[in-house]
Design brief:
- The protein is mostly helical.
- Helix 3 packs across helix 5.
- It is globular.
- The two termini are about 30 Å apart.
Length: about 130
């Protein structure tokens, strides 16, 4: 359904595609984008594709790995915008902690560390 929705959206003129790792549908969105690019319905430079870094991956070691995984699933060479999904950091062992787990799930990674790692992505053209 997501692939078809992406294809229809592009056919109707949508150009901003909003994604995130936590949505769990980047593969399907990527399939839809790829199909429309191959059909010549749209050029990559005409799309504005956004994705987001999930709370469990704010460490500098995880930022690049995560964006590359998103790019692979989306079948793209670069993103137009990559955001921090939520301004909280979880330890990488917690994806969606329960209410009881939240105190143990928080991590103390600084936003500055995450931001610098994201800025490095820009320098690499990702």
């Amino acid at each position: 359904e997501v692939q078809e929705a992406t294809e229809v959206a592009i056919d109707l003129g949508y150009r901003h595609i909003d994604c995130a790792w936590i949505y769990g549908n980047e593969d399907e969105v990527g399939n839809g984008i790829e199909k429309k690019l191959k059909e010549g319905k749209v050029k990559r430079e005409d799309l504005f594709v956004t994705s987001k870094l999930w709370n469990s991956y704010h460490s500098k070691e995880n930022v690049k790995v995560n964006v590359k995984e998103s790019l692979k699933r989306l079948r793209l060479d670069y993103l137009d915008l990559y955001l921090i999904h939520w301004p909280i950091q979880f330890k990488s062992s917690y994806i969606l902690p329960s209410a009881e787990e939240i105190p143990a799930a928080y991590d103390d990674i600084s936003f500055e560390e995450t931001w610098r790692a994201m800025e490095a992505l820009v320098d690499e053209g990702l």
